[in-house]
Amino acid sequence: xxxxxxxxxxxxxxxxxxxxxxxxxxxxxxxxxxxxxxxxxxxxxxxxxxxxxxxxxxxxxxxxxxxxxxxxxxxxxxxxxxxxxxxxxxxxxxxxxxxxxxxxxxxxxxx
Length: 111
Ligand SMILES: [Zn+2]
Fold this sequence. Notes:
- By secondary structure, the chain is mostly helical.
- It has a domain of 49 residues.
- It contains six helices and no strands.
- Helix 3 packs across helix 4.
- The N and C termini lie far apart (48 Å).
- The structure holds zinc ion (ZN).
- The site of zinc ion (ZN) has 5 residues, from helix 4.
């Protein structure tokens, strides 16, 4: 096994996203570097890919004809929040996050 700066437990959570093509290019490069030197992770990723490939061959079941109408009948449109309220909630959430992450480092200075 060739040493890499990432451990198996660092890259294994990315397997599913990697197989699904959802992992960002930088994480994919890190994963591929690790895979180049780790037999165990290469085998694990190959097993996951085999499962995904097998699942993609399964036919999709069609939904019962009455199901779509029943679901649509039970879904009600949610009233939209006024734009000012949405903006205020976003500001409070941002300030709260800044306050929590800046805790104990003195006053917050906006630049
Ligand atoms: Zn590994």
